[in-house]
Amino acid sequence: MKALTFPKSHRLLRPGDYGKVFDDVQLKVPHRNFLVLATPNSLGHARVGLIFSKKNLKLAVQRNRIKRQVRESFRQQVDLPGLDVVVLGRQGLANLENAAVQECLNDLWRRLKKKHRQLQPSRSDPSEPAG
User: Where is the signal peptide (predicted)?
Assistant: First the structure.
């Protein structure tokens, strides 16, 4: 059985890590309830940071529930490219059931991977036609 861990190496821990993402956003995946910002890193694996404000999720219970959902969803994404990812919460998250949150997150991860693939060929493959 695979170890079900979420090590510190897969988390954005310092303010500088978050600042790097905010200063150099290369991938942006909007959703009605979330906003995902990402920038490539040189680590070879993805790292995630979470920002959920009291303005959007009033109760600590609500914020913690959503954070647990995001962390679990991120942990299950084994094929994410080497990105530093910041997930921000928006209004209306408190009203969603857990299944709806998981569905939103799975869609966000899928769209993030797709945008990353679209970004890569333009950098590395000069024979790819533009447009």
Answer: none
Q: Which residues pair with 50 in a beta bridge?
A: 87
Q: Residue-wise pLDDT tens for the chain (131 aa)?
A: 455 677 788 888 899 989 998 998 888 999 999 999 999 888 888 899 999 999 989 999 999 999 999 999 998 888 888 889 999 998 888 889 999 999 999 999 999 999 988 887 655 544 545 54
64 vs 118: CA distance, rounded Å: 33
The type of residue at 31 is H
- Contact yes or no for 41/47 (Cβ under 8 A): yes
Q: Which helix (H) or strand (E) holds 48?
A: strand 47-51
Residue 7's Cβ-count burial label (10 Å; 0-12, 13-18, 19+) is: exposed
- State how beta strands 83-89 and 47-51 pair: parallel
44 Cβ contact partners less than 8 Å away, ≥ 6 residues apart? 82
Residue type, 7: P
